[in-house]
Design a protein that fits this description.
The protein is α/β, with parallel strands linked by helices and 373 residues long. The chain has twelve helices and twelve strands. The chain is 32% helix and 21% strand. The N and C termini lie far apart (85 Å).
Length: 373
């Protein structure tokens, strides 16, 4: 008769290895197993950073309570894996964040998608005021908000020592004082190397007269960029703001700038070939060039060649060009015919330009569908 099985005590290193294979939300609930397993779970928490996406819970419509949805992701290299979804009422959102912040100190992305931003901000600020709940790392902070919701600069200010990348897809501040607070907070992000800015309430692309909010926000953004020298700047702000003088003032002393993407329907490439801007272009490894239906690259060939020749060695442009359909009637759009001739001309142009400048060109050509009302 065989001897009875003896209990085996797993060593701590093996327990930590087991814990790393558990989804990080599941680890929280597995802490009830034993105190020793809890120690192993806590030791595994900082192996990989986590990401949080915060939104209003759209699946609980009609509820008398305000619910916040927290989507959680786990990062490993460039791979982002969805893990769990948490829903918490307004009264419990602070507890939900405390549960996460007390265990996970490394955040890769913190994304705030929609209302209620005030609830989220107040909860996070109250928690990180406690040293034991402060994250040690936050790589990306992203606000992607509705036009009616303003970004809360206090959250940027609170995380300013940690933020390496900041994305603001939101409304411009409507008062000069709020604009000053926002861009001063961004300028305090001492490790910031990437700034993306896409204002929702700017009407500059469709109006000759810029609203007052665009005017002072433009000045405050410029002062921010002069102080905080980023490596990567991306914006869809408006050509009437990003004129040659503005670019010169914002970037002339920035020796770190390497990537510049400014997307606007009215932007003329001669803005980049102005004598004061070309030295800035010479520092870039990548520049974004966008072409709408109004004007083809052929009509700006001389400016394109100047830009490509001014780029750093092995630098390249990222080109986005919209193509049109050859038919414009509502009947024809049932099965629209793509203008293949225009596509051939575009490909021929960029191949010729690449050959002339001995420059790699990252090119994206796509068709624009016209919808009739």
């Amino acid at each position: 008769m065989s001897a009875p099985l003896q209990p085996v005590r797993l060593n701590d290193l093996l327990l930590v290895g087991v814990a790393t294979h558990l989804q990080f939300i599941d680890r929280i609930f597995q802490e009830r197993v034993s105190r020793r397993f809890t120690q192993a779970l806590r030791a595994a928490n900082d192996v990989r950073p986590i990401s949080l996406t915060i939104d209003k819970n759209k699946w609980i419509e009609g509820s008398p309570f305000t619910f916040v949805r927290i989507n959680t992701f786990e990062e490993e290299g460039d791979k982002k894996t969805f893990r769990k979804q948490l829903s918490a009422s307004e009264e419990r959102i602070t507890d939900a964040f405390a549960m996460l912040f007390s265990r996970y100190k490394k955040l890769c992305h913190l994304t705030i998608l929609a209302e209620p931003t005030n609830i989220v901000t107040e909860s996070v600020l109250s928690l990180i005021a406690q040293a034991k709940l402060q994250p040690s790392k936050l790589r990306h902070l992203n606000f992607s908000l509705d036009k009616a919701v303003n970004v809360d600069f206090r959250l940027i200010k609170a995380f300013s020592p940690l933020i390496r990348s900041l994305a603001l897809n939101c409304s411009l501040p409507t008062t000069e004082a709020d604009s000053q607070k926002l861009w001063t907070s961004v300028a305090e992000c001492i490790n910031l190397h990437k700034l993306s800015f896409f204002p929702q309430n700017s009407i500059m692309r469709c109006s000759r007269d810029a609203p007052k909010s665009d005017t002072f926000s433009n000045a405050h953004l410029c002062e921010c960029l002069k102080l905080r020298k980023v490596r990567y700047f991306r914006s869809g702000y408006g050509a009437r703001s990003f004129h040659a003088d503005w670019l010169t003032e914002a970037f002339q002393d920035n020796e770190k700038i390497r990537k510049l993407f400014i997307k606007d329907y009215n932007l003329r490439l001669n803005t980049f070939t102005a004598p004061s801007v070309l030295p800035i272009i010479s520092r870039l490894s990548t520049i974004g060039l966008n072409f709408e239906l109004i004007e083809t690259p052929n009509e700006q060939e001389s400016d394109i060649l100047k830009i490509l020749c001014a780029l750093k060695k092995k630098g390249f442009p990222t080109v986005t060009q919209k193509m049109d359909y050859s038919t414009l009637s509502e009947v024809d759009l049932v099965e629209p015919v793509k203008d293949t001739k225009a596509l051939e001309e575009a490909l021929t142009f960029w191949l010729k330009t690449s050959d002339q400048t001995i420059c790699l060109i990252n090119c994206a050509l796509f068709y624009l569908i016209i919808r009739f009302q």
